[in-house]
Amino acid sequence: GAGANDVVADVARAWRTGATPEGLEARCAALRQWCDRYLAQKDAARWMLPPLLWLAARPRQLAGELDASCAGAGRHQEKLVEALREQFQKLQREREKREGALAVCCELLRLYFKLGQASQCTFLLSAVHQASSKQGGLDLGSLPKALAVTLYYLWGKHCVLDGNVVEGEEKLGWALANCPPAASGNRRRILAYLVPCRLRLGRFPVRGVLEKNGLSSLAGVSAAIATGNVRRFSQELEKHEGELIDCGTYLVVEKLKLVAYRNLVRRVHGRLAAQLDAQNKAEHRHKQDLAVYEHAFLWQDDCSPDETVCLLAHLIYIGAIRGYLSDEHRKVVFSKDSPFPPVSSWCPKA
Q: Where along the sequence do coiled-coil regions lie (predicted)?
């Protein structure tokens, strides 16, 4: 029909004009035409989703290229955000066309991450959540796999950056489980966020999985966290800083230092408790000298006594340690019952 011919004409114009602002406008026009044609269909028209995914991705890719090659960084991508939001809202209003809205949603999420506007993702994902939680609403599990995996990856990434580790692990775990084994690049992108997520929840990856997916940079970090080796953690973080920044996970991994600190405290606690037991002072094993922790923190991270007290107080505050500090007696008093709760039970935003 005429609608299809218009789309073909715009795609052909985009091809002719290449990587230019005119080419970007032609790609946006093709997407608008396809969305209008999609909306005109009386049923769900799932056959139109793969072309919609393709047409939605092309303007984003070109806008990124144009912004990378000119001084006004972000200008073309910011303009594209407005165009995509218009299409998202049109599709989201029609219940049977919400799968199409998700295709546009994924490209918007990618743009927001690229532009450093991750906070804008909340509006989009709230709309998706509301649509999927209503009775008879959108069933995310029945989406075409390519669309569903992309959505869950981006949604999980947003959760992780927002500090919602539990939901992030759930979304990213689903994306990984449903991502084809042959899609190595996509699996690596998912694991880059999923591994730090699981480390924060106390789940350590198999080294072979990291090496197979090109994430050897996280192997040293993981080992340092497991053994409470704070000095090695800092060295690994510095060593792989550029790679983690490029991947967008540096700040997420940096926060795992608290888990390394907690495991350091646990090791010191175990040693002191064993010494007190050997001295027939088992009834005092939960009351330990603060000075020993000051030495351990100085050795591992060059911490002053005041910094050590602050770090211990923070670990207690977030639920990483059960107990309290006694300034008067210079003691760390641990709970007799489960002084080191599971990492998954800590304050979620820690």
A: 74-101
